Amino acid sequence: MKNFWIIAICMAFITCEGPVPRKPxxxxxGSFMKESAExxxxxxxxxxxxxxxxxxxxxxxxxxxxxxGSWYVxxxxxxxxxxxxxxxxxxxMTYNVLSFENDTIYSAEDIGIITYKVDKxxxxxxxxxxxxxLKEGETATFLFPSSLAYGYHGDNQKIGTNVPVKSKITLIKxxxxxxxxxx
Length: 183
What we know:
The protein is built from five helices and eight strands, in the order ααβββββαβαββα. It is an alpha+beta fold. It has a single domain (37-182), classed as Chitinase A, domain 3, CATH 3.10.50.
């Protein structure tokens, strides 16, 4: 009986250790994210090489590199010191979408004249930021890497996965939000 109590006390101490966490079946290393980031860097490098080739072939024009990563050239420039669109302004504009080989994907006639509330309506990322670089009456051609165009997903119609695009944007009119609020 004495051995029974000794064994019972030993068992109580051994089993009161608490739960032991299970080890994961799979250990995630984060390699998928690293590989995805590397693929994206390589894709962007290839597309930037394509853009630089287009820029170098057009030696008569001056191309500008925007802070968001697109390149553009003015087709029609307004020299006057007029303001550019700000967030919440209403912009009337036209644009088209071309491939880098100048094949028309969407013509300006297909898209039509659109009124866009700056930063408040869905447009592809490059177009949203490019509108803010133009003044009223200006036209420019922009070269967008796929990450600023329709990205990995495309547009589910004519633009596929990771397609860089060219777009000619004309800013017809800017209606200032401050002017709209006063009326």
